[in-house]
Specification:
Distance between the termini: 13 Å
Strand content: 5-15%
Number of strands: 2
Number of domains: 1
Helix content: 40-55%
Radius of gyration: 12 Å
Number of helices: 3
Order of helices and strands: HEHEH
Structural class: mainly alpha
């Protein structure tokens, strides 16, 4: 899981995700926080060719679940 700093330009986020997805063909899903302008980013990512992009509303529970999963993958 990669979390970008606040105020990171959307084009940088989309470019990063596109590069990773093109490089690693085994990515099944890209989750984007739908709060704020997340829907715009999701739409642009899909239009850029990152078809496996999905919006998700991150709650404390989903953050903890995904954080645990990322830590398990890292170990």
């Amino acid at each position: 899981m990669h979390q970008f700093p606040l105020k990171t330009p959307y084009a940088s986020i989309i470019g990063y995700a596109k590069t990773i997805c093109d490089r690693w063909n085994k990515i099944n899903k890209v989750l984007v926080d739908m709060s704020g302008v997340g829907d715009y980013v999701v739409e642009d990512m899909i239009n850029t060719g990152i078809k496996m992009t999905e919006s998700v509303k991150f709650t404390q529970e989903t953050k903890e679940k995904n954080g645990s999963m990322a830590q398990t993958m890292h170990d």
